[in-house]
Amino acid sequence: MPDSCAQAFAGKSQFDLQCCETLLKLNRPHIALMLCERVLTRNPQSFRARIGLIKCYIKLGMYDEAKEELILLHLHVKALTLIKMIDRIIDNL
């Protein structure tokens, strides 16, 4: 990707997440971790960024951090499922 194009997209969540995935494949988890954290700063609810963060932690041998993120992700998914169930109940009233 030409530098001008990369500069135009730098800092945008989708671009950062794509770069994160590429960097993980290239075994560059430190840089990928920074990109995931940057996305989560802008959008703490990003599943894709949280999954990327977990992958980075595992590649870096940071297993306790990966476990904590997995627990948070699990709780978030459970909360969203509960919200959807409540919405369905309300819709049927």
How is this structure best described in words?
Helix 2 packs antiparallel against helix 3 (29-42) and helix 4 (47-59) packs antiparallel against helix 5 (63-91). This protein is mainly alpha-helical and 93 residues long. It contains five helices and no strands. The relative contact order is 0.10. It has helices at 3-9, 13-25, 29-42, 47-59, 63-91. The chain has one domain: Serine Threonine Protein Phosphatase 5, Tetratricopeptide repeat (Alpha Horseshoe), CATH 1.25.40. 82% of the residues lie in helices and 0% in strands.
Write a short abstract of this structure.
By secondary structure, the protein is mainly α. Helix content is 82%, strand content 0%.
The total tally of domains equals 1
| Mean pLDDT reading | 88
CATH second-level architecture: Alpha Horseshoe
| Helical content band | over 70%
According to DSSP, the number of beta strands is: 0
> Which fold name corresponds to the CATH topology?
Serine Threonine Protein Phosphatase 5, Tetratricopeptide repeat
Sheet with the most strands, sense and barrel status? none
Question: What is the CATH H-level superfamily?
Answer: Tetratricopeptide repeat domain
The chain-level structural class is mainly alpha
Give the helix tally.
Answer: 5
Form type:
elongated
Ends: how far apart? 53 Å
Radius of gyration: 16 Å
- CATH C-level class: Mainly Alpha
Strand and helix order: HHHHH
Unreliably modeled segments: none
